[in-house]
Amino acid sequence: MSKKNIDWDEEFDLEEPKSDNKELLRFVGRILSNWYWFVLCGVIGLMIAFAYLRYTVPAYKIHAKLLVSDDKKGSGMLSSSALGDLSSLMGTKNSVDNEVEVLRTADLMREMVLAETAYIAYFKQGRVHDVPVMSTPFLVTLLSDPDSVAFGYSLDVNPVDENIAELSSPDTLFRVQWDEPFSLPLAGLLRIERIKMPPTKESYGFRITPVRDVVENFGEALTVEVTNKNVSTIDLTLEHKLPKRGEQMLTTLIDKYVELNLHDKNVIADSTLSFINARLSKITDELAGVEDRISGYKRQNQLADISQQGRVLIESSADYTQKLAEVETQLAAVDAVASYLKDTQHPRVVPSAVIPQDVGFNALIQRYNELVLQRERLLLANTEDNPLVQNITAQIAGVRQDMIANVASTRRQLELAKQSQQELANSVSSQITQVPTIERGYIDLARLQQIKQAQYIFLQEKWEETAIGRTANVSNSKVIDSPKAEKKPFSPRRKVIYAVFVFIGLAIPLAVFYLRDLLNVRVRSLEDIEKGTQLPVLGMVAHSDEEQQVVVSKTSRSAIAEQFRAMRTNLEFSLNGGKTILFTSSMSGEGKSYVALNLAVSLALLDKKVLLMELDLRKPSITAKLGLPAGKGFSHYIVRSEMQVDEIVMSSGVHENVDLVQAGAIPPNPAELLIHPRAAELMEALTQRYDYILMDAPPVGMVTDAQLLSRYADICLYLVRQGHTYKEQLRIPSNLVTQNKIKPIQLIINDIQARGGYYQNYGYGYGYGYGYGYGEYGNIRKSKWWNIRKRN
């Protein structure tokens, strides 16, 4: 037989499909198809929110504002006082940030808790929960130390008679007498005083809590912050379930803070006075001692005006130093002249006026220079042997000797002058070096006297100011907005609670859908197929509840019959003149035989001769589905060489143009039979007789029979069943194509169940929604919303 050569690279595009709005449409369709679950969960969320708000005790915010004197902002009440000046030395400057930290301290909160006995709270018993109240018909008093409460109790108080009250909790029940002390383990000694009889059908109780726990709870409920950095105000916010009680407790907290602030100021003032007194006594003694030392120092060094004496010595030293420098300059000049005169072979001009005070020597220099210049002019036109040149040279030598003698004499005189000036300069320098030592000693003593005197005056002034300020101490903070509770509770927020619970209710179905999709490992939608493989889809077959295997007939107008007709049309284009069709799948139960049988009938309706071959030699099923008796088949033909083709071809019984070749006896070696030479001869002979040959092969994911049969096929139709085929198995047909084991392959999606718009009408043009336009819907029906069954 001849097999059509198809350019599979053109038929099968390996590029990723372009993204469009299919995902959004599917998501919206899924929501719309399951709208009743969203409505139901949303209503349940509203009901839960209503119940939550109905039985939740509201909490209120109590606000207060303090104005604090902040030295950093120049508004300190003590900024110009002695205490303010001294506090800068002792690190006690007022600042808003410091006061914020003070207001947050647990010690301050503890003072408030003890003053308000906040460790004892009262409540009114309710049917669902207890409601906190400010006043009850009785009063509970803790007679022992509040710190002795190590264990919390919540007790209901029920009057028995005028003298007895019953205290109860889920695990405790005992009776006590009114106004009489009683002991609670790990809590201490208490007393209940009856104020009035409680109203009928109303029950109250009290709760006692360790002080440490109460302080921590109120510390978490209190917010202290500076909302505006440009001003020195502090905002306090306390969260409490009883607005009046919260106002009272915040007021007490502020009062305790003011008391603590005044106490701290008085302690600082007293400490300051003590410090000043001690320093005054010490500074007074030190100042007297320094003055005595200054007087003795002046007498010892005979000082009158030490500054004037120093100036005279410095001027003398400068004069001697200048003269000594002049002598040294003259010595340097004389040495330079001597170096000039040493060169007898080549006389040079000697600098003039190097020793201005020696007129004779300067005359010799002038004469010497004139002779040198005259000799050089003569040498321009004569040699050194010329008598005139020799005469000039002799005169130069004579003048040089005179000059050398004069230079030696002048140098001796300058050395004597230098020695004299050096001795005078050393004497003055010795006197000058003594003057700074005396003066420095005097200046040190004078400076120490000034320091001690300034300290004495400063401390004397501050003692007076501090003593006055001690009697007029005021707090550095002022309440500018007294504690007030908000009219509406901040918790729970009704709108937010309703919105949150409705959102949670709507999110639950989405989460369930997502988790089911996430945990699902089987193919459930065309989207799963598109993600798992890029092979083309030839057609789709809807779910059928009918027991009969053949659903296609001449008169059938059902949707599923139209789907097979659409598949037949697509198959004609895919075959491109071919005849042999191979059916396989990943595993058994995916509907290969069912689809092959109905597609064969659909092709036969075109007046074509169709042969259906039952080549699943391991587990044949077509014969049983058609209700035919088992006879000779493919395995018999291959094994028996004398058997003819007509002996194994039989009528299928479903259509006059559809014949059947049964599998025959199940052989021990089906793979070897499929590639037997007689199998190729059989296929060649059948191709000559029939227009279409449909081969029902075993699953390719289990055995290799389908791969062996692919050599006889023009196209392979791979069955994928919704809810049955695993997603991972979609890689099998793709791998077969890429590895050139089976080519070409197209998919058929079987057993599609329309589920309220989610799986129906994919819009790919395969015609599987065509049957809805007729009066007969076949077996594809939308499930009623009240029919609770497996969905999505």
From TrEMBL:
The keyword Electron transport does not apply. The chain crosses the membrane at residues 35-55, 496-515. This is non-specific protein-tyrosine kinase. Its EC number is 2.7.10.2. It holds the Pfam family AAA_31. InterPro entries: AAA_dom, Bact_polysacc_biosynth/exp, LPS_length_determ_N, P-loop_NTPase, Wzc-like_C. It catalyses: L-tyrosyl-[protein] + ATP = O-phospho-L-tyrosyl-[protein] + ADP + H(+). Belongs to the etk/wzc family. Belongs to the CpsD/CapB family. Gene3D superfamilies: P-loop containing nucleotide triphosphate hydrolases. One of its GO terms (cellular component) is plasma membrane. GO terms for molecular function: ATP binding; identical protein binding; non-membrane spanning protein tyrosine kinase activity. Residues 23-113 form the Polysaccharide chain length determinant N-terminal domain. It is a multi-pass membrane protein. It is found in: Cell inner membrane. CDD domains: BY-kinase. Keywords: ATP-binding, Cell inner membrane, Cell membrane, Kinase, Membrane, Nucleotide-binding, Transferase, Transmembrane, Transmembrane helix, Tyrosine-protein kinase. Residues 579-709 form the AAA domain.
